[in-house]
Design goal:
Layout (H helix, E strand, L loop, with lengths): L2 H16 L4 H8 L8 H21 L3 H19 L6 H18 L7 E8 L2 E8 L8 E7 L10 H8 L4 E6 L17 H12 L4 E11 L2 H12 L5 E5 L5 H4 L5 H10 L5 H8 L15 E6 L8 H9 L4 E6 L14 H12 L6
Parallel strand pairs: 3-4, 3-5, 5-6, 6-7, 7-8
Antiparallel strand pairs: 1-2, 2-4
Helix pairs in contact: 3-4, 3-5, 4-5, 7-8, 10-11
């Protein structure tokens, strides 16, 4: 097994299984997988099995099962490409499959999802909107921002925690992420993307524009505070999960897969240029402008972002701050999901004033 395969398995196993990959499938895909060049094809092959299950169910009129199979296929295709920048054509094919499967699953999910496209800087941004099954519109909502290697295709289990509490979800691909990564590179300033997403979300008749929160994981845990700092009271709560305070400070300690992925998605020509761009992803001078209540969730054993970044953000933020430090958790805290996901959703619900938390 080469170092990149070993690194992906060691860092991301709990994330895969928490976010929709079965334990059995994780084992059968990764067992005996020795070379990184085979990663994308191995995951795509098993993704295709789940897609077939979904297409068969759809043809037989079993819509709920079809949606469940196709959303799982989308997650597998996503993990086929998530940091696979060695072969960009192969990566892009897997990504297209992930997007197609999720789009086809959306009408059949419970509750259904709706694709939203937003014109942006000569390109477009895409997101998935879901509203709770119960209650009455307009609903409070949370904007869900992924990280360097996650996309809207990965967020179904996160969405569920909010939907169960009467909160609509809007999972998005921003610059450098998912559908936007080919035309819009990673950027440190997320004010314009954040405002575009909030404008689109707030314009929906089923959404209460006065009750919106923003949540982000990994680099999304940096983007979410940057959005909150830029838009003031347009967001009523902010959650930063495993985000860096200054990504440039982390550069030398990042795995090669992460650095390579950042280089490609920031449109950098060299590792040094990528490091320079990474240094523009900083909350210095911005954190003090965060006035919305801020929940910072972090794992003490994070192997990508040192835990002291969470303390830096907590000390610099301008409003109410709570730091939830999970002593045994790794990056993203997927290995300790029960210890933070329900609490996070309850925390957001309380600040948005849902029916359960007026």
């Amino acid at each position: 097994m080469d170092d990149r395969v070993a690194s992906a398995i060691a860092h991301w196993g709990p994330r895969f299984t928490t976010n929709g990959v079965t334990v059995a499938d994780f084992g059968r895909v990764t067992q005996g997988l020795e070379h990184w060049r085979d990663w994308c094809a191995a995951w795509s092959a098993v993704a295709a099995e789940h897609e077939t299950l979904g297409r068969d169910a759809l043809a037989e009129g079993r819509a709920l099962s079809a949606g469940q199979h196709l959303e799982r296929a989308a997650i597998y295709y996503h993990f086929a490409k998530f940091v696979f920048v060695e072969d960009l054509d192969q990566m892009r094919e897997a990504h297209a499959n992930a997007v197609r499967c999720l789009n086809d699953a959306l009408p059949h999910l419970s509750p259904p999802g709706h694709r939203v496209e937003i014109p942006f800087e000569g390109s477009r941004l895409a997101g998935v909107l879901r509203v709770p099954s119960g209650g009455a519109a307009p609903y409070p909502a949370v904007l869900l921002i992924s990280g360097l290697d996650s996309t809207k295709e990965e967020q179904r289990t996160v969405e569920r925690t909010f939907l169960d509490r009467g909160i609509a979800t809007f999972s998005v691909d921003g610059p450098g992420q998912g559908e936007a990564e080919y035309d819009l590179p990673i950027r440190g300033d997320w004010s314009r993307p954040g405002e575009a997403f909030l404008d689109a979300l707030g314009a929906r008749p089923e959404i209460d524009a006065d009750r919106i929160a923003v949540w982000g994981v990994s680099l999304g845990g940096y983007y979410a505070p940057r959005v909150a700092a830029a838009v003031g009271d347009r967001v009523k709560a902010c959650v930063a999960l495993a985000g860096p305070y200054d990504f440039g400070d982390c550069w030398s300690g990042l795995p090669a897969l992460t650095r390579d992925t950042f280089r490609v998605r920031s449109s950098a020509g060299t590792d040094e240029e990528a490091r320079r761009i990474a240094s523009t992803l900083t909350l210095d001078g911005h954190a003090k402008r965060i006035t919305a209540p801020l929940l910072i969730v972090f794992g003490r054993k994070d192997r990508l972002i040192p835990w002291r970044h969470a303390e830096r953000l907590a000390g610099a933020a301008g409003g109410e701050v709570e730091l939830l430090m999970l002593e045994e958790a790794n990056h993203g805290c997927a290995d300790r999901a029960p210890w933070h996901r329900p609490y996070t959703a309850d925390w957001v619900a309380a600040r948005l004033g849902t029916a359960e938390n007026p």
